[in-house]
Amino acid sequence: MLRVDSFPTHEHEGLKLRPGRVMPFGATIVEGGVNFSVYSSHATSCSLVLFRRGEADPYAVIPFTDEFRIGHVFAMVVYDLDYEDTEYGYVMDGPYDRSQGHWFDPSKVLVDPYAKVISGRDVWGAMPDDGALRPMRSRILQNDFDWQGDVPLETPMEDLVIYETHVRGLTAHPSSGVRYPGTFAAVREKIPYLKELGVNAVELLPVFEFDEFENWRPSADGEGRLLNYWGYSTVGFFAPKAGLAATGHLGMQADELKALVRDLHRNGIEVILDVVFNHTAEGNENGPYISFRGIDNKTYYLLTPDGWYYNFSGCGNTLNCNNPVVRNMILDCLRYWASEYHVDGFRFDLASILGRDQDGAPLASPPLLESLAFDPVLGKCKLIAEAWDAGGMYQVGTFPSWGRWTEWNGRYRDDVRRFLKGDGGVTWLAAQAMQGSPHVYDPAHRGHCASVNFITAHDGFTLMDLFSYNDKQNLANGEDNRDGANDNQSWDCVLPGASAEQTEALRRKMVKNALTVLLLSHGVPMLLAGDEFGNTQGGNNNTYCQDNETGWLDWGDLDRNRDLFEYAKKLIALRHAHRCLRSSATTTPTAHGYPPVSVHGVVPWQAEYWGNTLAVLFSGDDAFVHVVMNMHWEDVDFTLPGLPPGFTWRLELASDDDTAYPGDGAVRMPSRSTAVFTATPATIFTPEGN
To answer: Is 386 an annotated catalytic residue?
Structure first.
């Protein structure tokens, strides 16, 4: 028996209709039909445009009558639609006055801001022979995925080891050995590798629908194409990227991504999404109409008094994040990914933009950031901010947190890079970095995991390139080497009189040094995919457009650099095995009277901040871990700290095979090397494979 409110009350060109439910926004399957709801505060009229999948022309254009509008929301139910064969969009009419921020154009068919699936780029990089790209259309998602009992893992923040990767870049290279390279399905095939390495969270570069053909151009050699590879240019915030799915051409990208999340969870690995709410793919005043611009430009974007776009993102426009409507959309979006995709956390690109008001000025207590911090659905999700933007705001250490937000620690990256390459005057900063950066994050107010530590990320040099190039090598991007950061704190490791073999050996040792510092620092470590086996991008520090072997991981490096992989794996195992490496929540001395973390020099308990040597002791009730770092260009003798009765130092790892430890508390550290010593009362922890 049908409910009374499920009967059609209107008809248009043979389609049965009735007034819709205003909430939720988007296209929602209801009894007998689909509820369409869209917001626009300035549109004078709206029509729903229906297409059969893949067809250029619509089969129906249905105006929203006055009965189908409440406030600023247009809503109707359309009955008897074939969900799988239907694409839809909206046509909005209203004022066209750019000086007032209005861009309405009734000739444009617009993507639903709440679309759960978007078609038009269903196969990655597929361009028709005539070069005409199919318009992007909204689609209807039938949510029938079987999660098989999956629940979010809720791994404590201090226990995470994050692996940042690009879905396509991880497996697109022929050496990856997967069935469907460059897809969510292919990442599933790499789960055993991730487990062996020991990481327990993957941070995926953007997986929201974007257009890889945005600003595409032929490569410099004329043999390839430069695409929007990274995807930091969102088309639809609720829709997974079809071109990253092996089943995208079948419209099954949502299920494929959910299957990946489910299988990662089964293996103890959380999923963090890199989300881009600071701007959209519509660009500046010369950009295309896709969705927001034609639906309600003045609501969705930050505009100058004369109607131009503020550009705090560096990408042409800036989303008006603290407008209540936009703020609610972002909240709806993240709740959707947390509840419907079981996502464990989010990293917010250029997050400082999320704290600007409608005139672009920084807010002391941004409503959006506060709402995210206290949202009940997101209550156990990780919230990670890239605490700066392209408009000059830099908030590392001062990002509004409410005890919930953590930050990419850009200061950690810069200070550790300088220390590793032997710069003077930075040893104290390196010591702070290894303690969780208390000089940046007051432990009393920000907790012990405010700092997400990284030395490299997708944006910049890889770890091997950091020690192979003094300057960026970005000519292949077609921008005359102007793009990408110039201040990289890198070093090519070329010493006077050194042979090629000696230079290569030094580079590998420097990579191990960096891995040691990163993976044994307090805070939350983030490892860039491929750094654990020496991945190189040929010195390109901005591979945003390099959908080719420059931007892909070459899995042959895993065999060529197996020693680096084994070294990284042992470091991660050490971190997991010893709680003293993961938590600095207390300053209370251990049961043996040692501080939880202490800084030393070549002599125990005597820190020396003026040179290039450093040692950090992490102490627990049942274990001690001592990290010794000699970044000097000469060998240096260190003395290890004394231990309580029943404990004995053991050399666990050393970046240089010539590290000598006879067992008497004295250790000779070769130049530019690190070593890790452990002590436990009974059994000595030995990382697998040591």
So the answer is: yes
